[in-house]
Write a structure and sequence with these properties.
2 copies of one chain form a homodimer. Chain A is an alpha+beta fold. In chain A, strands 16, 17, 18, 19, 20, 21, 22, 25, 26, 27 and 28 form an 11-stranded mixed β-sheet that branches. In chain A, a hairpin with a 2-residue loop joins strand 14 and strand 15. Chains A and B meet through helix 1, strand 1, strand 3, strand 4 and strand 5 of A and helix 1, strand 1, strand 3, strand 4 and strand 5 of B.
């Protein structure tokens, strides 16, 4: 078996705390598998290798449900045995391929390929040693059907009678923007260009004028270019895509302080609680008399909530929580959106300017505040979220209370992955993630899970909103409160929890989850 | 001046038609500038270079408004002289940075950097020739705070007494997953790792076990790793990001034909035209009795439109066209959404199954159909859209009627950039683009412009919906039609056109547009 090795005198030590660090993606395979395979690969007979394995107490591997750690609870499977994620036609499909569509087929054909192939821009390309070829490994981009000069091409070969290089592409053609004396070009305007010269300097001067023109239309893809000379070959990628269209917002006229009405829209969803909603609005107006408030309302008997700078949207009865959130954000026309629940109360501590300052001065996309309960306890609900890849069966969702690190320059603020339901966010980023309208009742972290890799999230405990009291004994509740509770807190027989898990399983490809 | 050159005997020819192909991004600079600069750069005295310039009739350059072509109208400036896109604080800001946030600062600090810096994954990196270093130029990715094995590292150096390599990172640390006999490691678990050996084979075996662990949290960034040996250095990028969360949809139970009710939601926006809306719904129900229809309604005196599988959303009066479109799509829970105008009529030629087939079998994101007017003329409104970069002043939007190429496997279908207001689209992609709610009246191509690089668009002329007659003389119009026309067709004094141009100028960074 393998044991933990240590090189005498090297002062090596096992990487410190953070058991989860070893649960890497390892080129898509489990740790043990990759390292073991390499160790026993049979390469280089005579070289002795001592493998190091993950320390006891590391993350549960996707294949074992018994591995446990004092820091983690056992992974909880999300899907009952009866659920199956079929891969046949008709199953949940169309995994988001991200940018970079698969390569196109024949010239003049079109995108007739199956969705889901890896983009050429993501493929592993190894740079070979001791090659006379010089070329751009990264950073070359052309707009669809446009032309660019290819930077950085050069040949540094040993002395010979004739120097020759060839460039081959698939989605475009090569040409030369200028002709250098002493160089012969073959294939100008075609997918294969050769340059020949007897003097190396002339060839290299000519290589400064080579252009690439994208000819097979695609709005977002990449071409892998082969660059070769006698006995050597290299590949590099040219990205082919439109420049991302900027999503800019009018920040309003500059002044001494932030113009909250121009920069921020307050958004909320309401259901059956008009008294609380009106109390929220009144509290907002004490401090922000002209800020726009957007209300998504799926009450059964809707009441108009009037007033300047108030927009109320009426939805089918009981359409749902995330549907309402998605509706509200779809109507925001300002740079930032402040999400509040309809039973919050603004106080002098609810300084939206402070949250705006964080987003104006850092690259964070969303910053949460604190919600103060009647007991005096303030909740920031900071959650770290990560996904452990698990192959075909599904991945494992991991959530842990806490934060990653402090936010430099902002005392009282930290960086994390999920926060409480009181946050300011860049409108464009929230829209990019969206609130899944299939989540009708119990949902919160789903938004942040859908936002992994998209949202950079912070949390400031010193910007606080009050939560209208919930501590009422059942017989003290008003009729509307009882009605509300009936919908808001589904019984175990309600389908909304299994809908939630169904989405985790089928939509997000999770098969288990752990939290603490 | 420069003249068109041709190398004798080379058989070179000027690249064929398509004048616009030469208006490339040219590393962010105009064509003339780059080539001219290279030609006169003073490199390599004694080497003669004859530049080739763009042929007469090419695209207007951003700096000249007089260059014209028989295929193009002169670019029309979008902004009156009084508009100014200030770059000072308080101006329209936060250009979407796309993926890859700027590098973080000190350890334990946080993202305190200015938004908008180029990502390390986009930087130009040149591979130097004749280097003994072998490494991965592309394709290495790690999840935030996780660990991976770095593939492809090797040293192919000439014989010497001692071989040494060093790896340096900024956002993470290196370590070794196994120890190879005969190799000394310094800096395990740190940002700088050195490996030393007297035998090259041992060092290369060790390089197969080098790991990288991301330690500075960021949900989507990249680290540039320096890889060096005596006298040689190379850089490569490790992407650090969460895997994109898939957005999957339930396709319903498989059957002989596509289950349109499970796969498709029909969405529309209505305003003051309940008679037409009801006619539309009745026509849909002839062919699709159970498909969900979502209606965004901003009429002043809303009327409930009842019926099974109908969802009606009431908005503030006159909130607007794109606000209504954004609301409607925010409520879709199926894989595809079919957009229709409220005055369309479904006929037997309105085969939604055909459009679903296109999106199921290709990587297109959206496919438009045809709209048949009372005259019998069917409009597909296929538009090619491109943006010519123009530097600080702004870019130039170019739209041209037509398509890029045929869609292989689907006779009657083509690939283009913009289509008519009758289309089927992947819900997730439409949500990714969104309809800007600031466009209240006149807007159509804005959606496709915002979608450049995101949407891959097709058009099939043989899937046709009828357009309820518009050809009525003014005195024949009903009261509601007159009321509708008042809002729908703004007079020149109306602000909506300048709002549209204002958005083009400030939001999309366009300073001119051309079309034919």
């Amino acid at each position: 078996g393998q044991r933990q090795g240590q090189w005498p005198g090297a002062g090596g030590h096992w990487p410190g705390a953070g058991a989860d660090r070893w649960a890497g993606i390892g080129l898509g395979q489990g740790w043990a598998g990759v390292t073991g395979r390499l160790v026993s690969a049979g390469c280089c007979p005579g070289i002795r290798v001592r493998a190091r394995w993950r320390p006891a107490g590391s993350c549960p591997s996707p294949s074992s449900s018994s591995a446990s750690s004092s820091r983690w609870s056992s992974p909880r499977p999300l899907a009952p045995r009866s659920w199956r994620r079929s891969t046949a036609a008709g199953s949940w499909s169309t995994r988001a391929t991200g940018s970079g569509e698969p390569r196109q087929g024949r010239r003049g054909g079109g995108p007739g390929v199956r969705p889901g192939t890896q983009s050429p821009a993501e493929q592993l390309l190894i740079v070979r040693a001791n090659s006379p070829l010089e070329y751009p490994a990264q950073g070359v981009e052309v707009r669809p059907l446009r032309t660019i000069l290819i930077p950085g091409l050069s040949l540094q070969a040993a002395s010979r009678k004739l120097y020759k290089v060839t460039l081959i592409a698939t989605l475009g053609t090569f040409d030369v923007a200028a002709m250098v004396e002493g160089v012969k070009a073959q294939g100008e305007g075609e997918t294969r260009l050769s340059l020949l010269a007897t003097q190396l300097d002339n060839l290299n001067r000519q290589l400064q004028f080579v252009t690439y023109t994208n000819t097979l239309f695609h709005p977002n893809t990449a071409d892998t270019v082969q660059f070769a000379t006698d006995g050597h070959q290299a590949s590099f990628t040219i990205r082919i895509r439109h420049a991302p269209t900027p999503k800019l917002y009018n920040p309003g006229t500059p002044g001494d302080d932030y113009n909250i009405s121009a920069l921020v829209t307050i958004a909320t969803k309401t259901f059956l609680r008009y008294d609380k909603l009106r109390a929220l609005i009144a509290s907002i107006r004490r401090f922000y008399p002209t800020v726009t408030i957007i209300i998504a309302d799926d009450s059964q008997h809707p009441e108009p909530v009037g007033g300047p700078h108030i927009e109320q949207y009426f939805m089918p009865f009981g359409k749902g929580w995330f549907a309402g959130r998605n509706l509200a954000i779809s109507q925001v026309t300002t740079k930032y959106v402040l999400w509040v629940d309809d039973d919050f109360i603004f106080t002098p501590r609810t300084r939206v300017e402070k949250l705006v300052d964080v987003l104006e001065k850092t690259s964070l996309d969303l910053v949460g505040g604190g919600v103060r309960e009647i007991t005096g306890v303030t909740t920031t609900y900071q959650q770290k979220i990560s996904v452990q890849m698990g192959g075909e069966e599904g991945d494992c969702l991991q959530t842990r209370q806490g934060y990653h690190h402090l936010l430099e320059g902002f005392p009282g603020c930290v960086v994390t992955d999920g926060v409480v339901n009181f946050f300011l966010a860049r409108t464009a980023k929230v829209l990019e993630v969206g609130f899944d309208p299939r989540l009708s009742r119990v949902a919160h972290l789903e938004f942040f899970i859908d936002g992994l890799g998209v949202l950079h999230v912070g949390s400031c405990a010193d910007v606080v909103v009050d939560h209208a009291s919930k501590l009422k004994l059942p017989w003290q509740k008003s009729e509307s409160e009882k009605q509300y509770a009936k919908f808001r807190y589904p019984t175990s027989g309600d389908s909304s929890v299994s809908v939630k898990h169904g989405l985790f399983y089928f939509k997000n490809h999770f098969k288990c989850m752990t939290s603490n």
